[in-house]
Amino acid sequence: MPTGEIDPREADRLAKVGQWLEKHGEAIYGTRGGPYRTEDNVASTRKGNNVHLLVSQWNNALTVPELPVQVQSAKLLGGGEVTISRQNGTLIFTVATKDQSPAMTVIKLTLAGSAETIHPLAPRPN
Fold first, then answer.
1. Residue range 23-54, pLDDT digits in tens
2. Domain that holds residue 42
3. Is position 3 within any domain?
C-alpha cells in the first residue's frame, strides 16, 4: 500500500508462501534449473546429488525419462509417500491424493552421482 503496509489480503498469501517454503525451500534455495526442462505441470531443480521435481497438477502419475545417473531414493518434501517404478526407460511416480500439496508437490530424488552434469532433458518421454 502507499503507506508501506502490506494489504491484509496480500499478507495472507505471503504467509502461505512462507509456510510452503518452510517445507519445500530446499528445492528452491541454492539450486539451479534442470535437469528436466519446465513443461506444463512439472519443473525441476538440482543441487549436488539431488533433483527436485515440482509438480503443480497430478493426473494418475508423473512419468519422466530415466536419468543417466541412478536414482537411489525418492521422497516427498512435504511428508507422505511417493512410489517410484521404472518402465521402458521412464521413471513413474505416484503420490496419494492426500499427500499432494495444493500449491505444488515436491519430490526429492537422491542420485548415485552428481545431478550437476546432466544435460537438459525433456520432461515427457518420447
1. 889 999 999 999 999 988 899 999 999 999 99
2. 8-111
3. no
